[in-house]
Design goal:
Blueprint lengths: L23 H29 L11 H13 L3 H32 L1 H14 L8 H8 L3 H25 L3 H9 L4 H38 L5 H10 L3 H29 L5
Helix pairs in contact: 2-10, 3-4, 3-6, 3-8, 3-9, 5-6, 6-8, 8-9, 8-10, 9-10
Length: 276
């Protein structure tokens, strides 16, 4: 009997077929990933070497190895988790309490002109006020408890989400509304199938900006009136001149901001696949 030819193994070259060559886009993507990994490592190495050779003042710029030891002591000494937990809870609550009303009011103002012209002067008059500048007033109203920090984060997130959502709804082409009117589309379908998908990119931009501003505001709020939190840890380290500990707080805020940005980008790719 003739032997039955076995199928080619997966990935094995087939006679007469050209081997697959990695696309230029995939190669460039791998290069970008390596660059994003190696550039921070190179910066840390340069920092460490300059510190070893006393080329910078170690009182203000401790070496990364010293900062790593301080981080290790704080982490396994049980001092880091209470501050980190307090900040995360405040950021989450403030972001939620600010972004949800911002989304709802932004859509309502974009769809209803009388409401937009009634509230616009108030929004544009109060938006330029630095949100941390109203912290003394917030503390007078809410006291030194958790609500004062959460409210400062919420008010910062509210404006960014509101303005971006309003812009996204107002910029929807009127032809979509005319088509829906001619087709007698229900108000529910108009909101869910036309307004929401069209304004979603601007909404996501506002939410991503609000996440970054929430980090800035919570650190500033915790510096002025808190007993726990990353901002309090940074401020307390400055007062006691514990510089490595202060850098630990700064690095945690930086890492948290990066993680939140990556998470927001992933969510955006999932709900807005056409933007890629």
């Amino acid at each position: 009997m003739n032997e039955i030819a076995c199928p080619a193994e997966a990935g094995a070259p087939v006679p007469g077929q050209k081997p697959k060559v990695p696309s230029r886009q995939a190669t460039r993507r791998r290069q970008e990933i390596w660059l994003s990994i190696l550039s921070p490592i190179a910066l840390l190495l340069v920092w460490e070497v300059t510190g070893r050779f006393k080329m910078m003042d170690l009182r203000y710029f401790p070496m990364p190895s010293v900062i790593a030891v301080s981080f290790w002591d704080l982490l396994f000494g049980g001092y880091l988790w209470p501050d980190f937990k307090a900040s995360i809870i405040r950021i989450f609550l403030g972001f939620l309490l600010g972004s949800v009303p911002g989304l709802v009011l932004g859509v309502a103002m974009g769809l209803w002109r009388p409401l937009r012209f009634a509230i616009n002067p108030i929004i544009y008059a109060t938006y330029p006020i630095p949100k941390i500048a109203i912290l003394p007033l917030v503390i007078l109203i809410f006291g030194l408890g958790e609500m004062s920090k959460v409210f400062v984060v919420a008010i910062g997130a509210f404006y960014l989400v509101l303005l971006n959502t309003l812009t996204g709804v107002v910029c929807i082409d009127r032809i979509y509304f005319d088509v829906c009117k001619n087709l007698r589309t229900s108000r529910r379908d108009l909101y869910l199938r036309v307004v929401l998908p069209a304004a979603l990119p601007a909404m996501m931009t506002g939410l991503k900006l609000a996440l970054g501003v929430s980090l800035l505001l919570i650190v500033a709020a915790e510096m002025l009136g808190a007993h726990h939190g990353i901002g309090h840890m940074i401020w307390d380290s400055w007062q006691t001149f514990t510089v490595p500990r202060m850098y630990v707080g700064l690095i945690i805020i930086s890492a948290l901001g990066y993680i939140l940005s990556v998470f927001a980008d992933h969510i955006e790719r999932e709900i807005l696949p056409w933007r890629d």
